[in-house]
Design goal:
By secondary structure, the protein is an alpha/beta fold. It is built from 11 helices and 8 strands. The longest helix has 22 residues.
Length: 295
């Protein structure tokens, strides 16, 4: 039997399995998919699995086999399972903020400060480096007032973050795409968040540079990250315009972007937050996405 015929005969039955069964089968493989040294640590958000519902441990096995090093927004109970497969908790919540009511709400600052202290303590004990929160909806508030209020609450919390070495972060999210359901978000242009961080002036207050949102809101993705790498603690990636895979079906050249991030000396994580297109195999998508960013 020719080599190509043999490989096809092996791959065909696996492709016909239900996703959960394929996850278990592929997780049993020990050889890593990564074919070159890893210079950019990659993690994932839960969106990369689409509508599939495999066991969490099977997901960890597959991620470890491919070469991923972390998972964004795990629960505390999931962390011991992740650690068995060399996966770190890369970012978690616990600031008392929501997409609707965030750091800009001065009347909530006492509660937010208390929740941030608890969140920072919790993440420090769990070994997670980044606590993420949200600026929130403006609902008529000016961008200037919103920035002043955000700086004020960060100044109240930053000393504790510095002491515990947990970075407090906010994530840009575009207010342009109605389907993203975030049309009134305050942090809808990356310059707003960079200005907040500059004013707070702490290495433990930074932004999550979500490249999907940056491209839609502002463009100039690489110049923005090169000029402000000291204010970025984490990256998210997804294809534009569809928020799908980061491959050639979307407009951004993610391999070039990944190289630019490496060139800045960045040592944190870059997390995949794309949504698999209909009919796509989530595992094959993960392998391809990992290879694209593994510059």
């Amino acid at each position: 039997m020719k080599r190509r015929e043999f490989l096809s005969s092996v791959a065909a039955p696996l492709a016909m399995m239900p996703l959960a069964s394929r996850l278990s089968a592929q997780a049993a493989q020990t050889a890593p998919a990564a074919s070159r040294p890893v210079r950019l640590k990659q993690s994932v958000m839960s969106t990369v699995w689409g509508n599939s519902t495999p066991m969490f441990e099977d997901k960890c096995k597959v991620l470890s086999r491919i070469g991923f090093k972390g998972i964004d927004l795990p629960t505390a109970a999931q962390i011991p399972i992740m650690q068995q497969y060399g996966l770190a908790p890369t970012m978690m919540t616990g600031t008392g903020t929501t997409m609707q009511n965030g750091f800009i709400r001065k009347e909530m600052h006492d509660m937010i400060e208390a929740e941030c202290h608890k969140g920072i303590d919790s993440l420090a004990s769990l070994g997670c480096p980044i606590l993420i929160g949200f600026a929130g909806e403006r609902r008529g508030m000016s961008y200037e007032e919103a920035a002043d209020n955000t700086v004020a609450i960060f100044n109240r919390v930053k000393a504790h973050a510095e002491q515990k070495k947990v970075t407090l972060s906010i994530e840009i999210t575009n207010a342009k795409v109605v389907a993203d359901q975030r049309v009134d978000q305050t942090f809808s242009h990356v310059a707003w968040g960079f200005d907040v961080c500059k004013r707070v002036n702490s290495p433990y207050v930074r932004i999550v540079y979500d490249i999907y949102h940056v491209q839609i809101a502002d463009g100039d993705v690489v110049r923005g990250l090169r000029d402000n790498t000291d204010k970025i603690c984490h990256y998210h990636v997804a294809g534009v315009p569809g928020r799908n895979e980061i491959d050639e079906t979307q407009e951004l050249n993610y391999r070039f972007i990944a190289q630019a991030i490496v060139d800045t000396g960045y040592t944190g994580f870059i997390a995949h937050e794309y949504r698999p297109s209909a009919g796509k195999d989530p595992i094959q998508d993960l392998e391809k996405a990992f290879a694209i960013l593994n510059v």
